[in-house]
Amino acid sequence: MQELKFVRDYKDIEPLRNSFFELAKDTFELELERWYEGGCWTDKYVPYSYAEGDRIVANVSVNLIELIINGVKSPAVQIGTVMTHPDYRGRGLSARLMDKVLEDYGQACEFMYLFANESVLEFYPKFGFLPVEEQIFSMSCPGGAAGSAAIRKLNLADPHDLSLASTLGAQRVPVSERLGVSGAHGLLMFYCLNVFSDQLYYLEDENLIAICQQENGQLELFDLISTQPFSCREIALKLADSDTETIVFHFTPDDPGLELSGSSHSEGLFVRTQGGLQYPANIKHPATSIA
Question: Residues 13, 68: one domain?
Answer without folding.
Answer: yes
